[in-house]
Write a structure and sequence with these properties.
- There is one protein chain.
- The chain is of the alpha+beta class.
- The chain has a domain at 114-296: Glycosyltransferase.
- The strands form eleven sheets. It has a three-stranded antiparallel beta sheet with strand order 7-8-9. A three-stranded antiparallel beta sheet has the order 14-15-16, with no helix packed on it. Strands 1-2 form a two-stranded antiparallel sheet.
- Strand 8 and strand 9 form a beta hairpin.
- It is globular and about 55 Å long.
- The relative contact order is 0.13.
- The model is unreliable at 1-32 and 479-515 (pLDDT under 50).
- It binds 2-acetamido-2-deoxy-beta-D-glucopyranose (NAG) (4 copies).
- One 2-acetamido-2-deoxy-beta-D-glucopyranose binds at residues 20-22, 408-409, 412-413.
């Protein structure tokens, strides 16, 4: 196994060795250059993967939230809001499954009902459901030309997805009515916030709502959605420690941290993402400044090459040698800052773990290079392939495609069942777990498709991808012709960047010099 790290240590530099998984053991394969015909074969494999996963959901689980692939049944584990369907309406457009898109959008119009006796998680429901509804609406309307939809593509559409998103967001507004502006984590869809609801919020949950709420404000002309989501972010940021670090759990009444540890993985991750992407989408420089401050602290205290270690926000010292699989997204933010070297060093480290187990375990110890007991599962997450996509976008390096190929092989060989794709309970023995989360289709499949489709419209730079991989159109007001904030963002001076990223025709961005 020792050679595996070396193999991935070299993957950005030309000729490479990559691993091939077969059953429970791995063998090596040399020369991973991806020929054009192989790229097309792999892309078709991803399309088939999405189609099979989606059809399995429809057959066995619809209209429940999620598919249980081993039981071949559905479960309303997220409030019964048709989560996998809604989270994947835009995925249907992205995969050019146009007739399925129209059929299920029309069905949704008659089935969507939020007058149910259920409590839902505001963060998860916002990124999956509100995000899914809004991005599909935008692709269908404002962005239809970019997406290549004909004028008469869907004449029956009259804005229903936007109305559903607004209806749901309106139910969430009472949760923001707290002294700090930091919202409650969950809300009952009919009765509002329960009197027994927890007063402790996690940073990511409370601070990852702006792309969705802000887009809703832009589309409805009512600023209140943007305002509550933005206020929550400002409030979280205002509680940064003297070192500029934010804890993971905070009291929403008195603003005290209840868990004085920070990191780029679970409970904090997407807060940083939405500061940067919020700027890219809405052009608010306050968001960029907050991001730069957080990012500088992360680079000063957390970055222990090639890992970002969880750290005490007061002492500024590392508290753990455990990495969460969620942290594997962070190289994508480094890419957006132009920090290619850091991004690829960090990404390579995660890839070495991926290579070792054929999957990235939920948490692993970087000293023992082993999964943490009880956290050795792989729930079909996208983060590693998300960073791989951004690096590919930025560098066009075809060697990155070997990761994409290995991802497809791993998913096909290890997680495919007769009823969709299944999570893995333990990466040591690849035992299956009975769940296909909606993000497998909406994120994992999307990032793999993008990586294999260099002429995809996503590379136009006109969209910011949400933390659930929903594309949000950069509003025309924040762009002039070909100049979009996402490209301006890539020129941001204090993002530790020393290079200029330029839009190029084929692969998106080209980089010359690296940090
Ligand atoms: C399974 O992995 C092998 C390599 O071990 C690969 O050749 C094969 O194509 C994979 N199967 C599928 C269905 O992708
Ligand atoms: C699917 O699950 C539901 C409730 O969770 C149950 O009532 C039903 O019998 C299950 N169907 C199958 C085929 O197991
Ligand atoms: C709502 O559900 C709870 C339990 O989940 C139950 O105790 C309560 O009676 C239900 N309320 C109504 C109005 O059905
Ligand atoms: C976290 O640090 C703050 C000071 O910034 C302190 O007031 C608080 O008690 C600490 N919380 C915990 C749980 O240690």
């Amino acid at each position: 196994m020792a050679g595996l790290n070396l193999c991935f240590g070299l993957f950005l530099f030309g000729s490479i060795i990559c691993f091939v998984s077969s059953g429970h053991s791995f063998k090596f394969m040399r020369s991973c250059d991806l020929a054009e015909n192989e790229r097309i074969v792999l892309r078709n494999q991803v399309k088939e993967m999405f189609r099979f996963g989606f059809e399995s959901y429809i057959k066995a689980a619809y209209p429940r939230d999620n598919l249980l692939p081993l039981s071949c049944n559905g479960t309303d584990s997220m409030g019964g809001l048709l989560v996998t369907l809604i989270d994947n309406l835009d995925t249907l457009l992205i995969f050019e499954e146009y007739s399925l898109f129209m059929r299920y959008t029309l069905e949704l119009e008659s089935m969507f009902n939020i007058d149910v006796n259920r409590t839902v998680n505001i963060f998860e429901t916002t990124i999956r459901v509100i995000g899914g509804l809004l991005s599909s609406h935008v692709l269908l309307t404002e962005a239809s030309e970019v997406v290549g939809l004909a004028d008469d593509f869907f004449p029956h559409y009259s804005g229903s997805l936007l109305r559903m998103a607004k209806e749901l967001a309106d139910r969430f507004l009472p949760a923001f009515d707290t002294p700090t502006g930091i919202p409650f984590g969950s809300i009952h869809l009919m009765n509002g916030v329960s009197s027994s609801e927890s007063l402790i919020a996690c940073t990511a949950g409370a601070g990852t709502l702006l792309l969705e709420f802000g887009t809703l404000s832009r589309l409805t002309g009512d600023p209140k959605y943007y305002d509550v989501a933005y206020r929550a972010m400002k409030s979280l940021f205002s509680h940064a420690s003297s070192r500029g670090l934010l804890g993971k759990h905070i009291h929403i009444v008195n603003g005290r941290w209840l868990y004085n540890v920070t990191g780029v993985g679970g409970d904090a991750d997407s807060f940083f993402e939405y500061l940067l992407k919020g700027f890219a989408l809405f052009g608010n420089y306050e968001l960029l400044k907050m991001f730069q401050s957080c990012h500088e602290s992360i680079r000063s205290y957390l970055w222990n090459e090639p890992w970002y270690l969880d750290c005490d926000i007061e002492k500024g010292t590392a508290v753990s040698s455990v990495q969460s699989a969620l942290s594997a997204f962070f190289p994508s933010l480094e890419v957006l800052c132009g920090n290619m070297n850091t991004a690829s060093r960090s990404h390579k480290a995660f890839c070495s773990i991926f290579a070792k187990f054929g999957m990235l375990p939920e948490a692993f110890n970087i000293k023992k290079l082993a999964p943490v007991k009880g956290f050795g599962g792989y729930p079909l997450r996208p983060e590693l392939f998300e960073s791989n996509f951004y690096l590919f976008w930025a560098t066009g390096d075809p060697a990155l495609l070997s990761i994409t190929r290995n991802a497809i092989w791993s998913l096909e060989n290890l997680t495919k069942t007769s009823c969709g794709y299944s999570s893995i309970r333990d990466v040591n023995n690849h035992e299956l777990d009975d769940m296909m989360e909606s993000f497998f289709l909406s994120e994992t499949c999307k990032y793999l498709l993008f990586s294999l489709t260099p002429d995809h419209w996503i590379y136009s730079g006109r969209f910011v991808l949400s933390t659930e991989a929903h594309p949000f159109l950069v509003p025309p007001a924040f762009s002039d012709g070909s100049h979009y904030k996402i490209t301006e963002l890539l020129k941001a001076p204090k993002c530790h960047r020393k290079s200029e990223l330029k839009l190029v025709e084929k692969c998106g961005f080209e980089t010359q010099d690296i940090d």
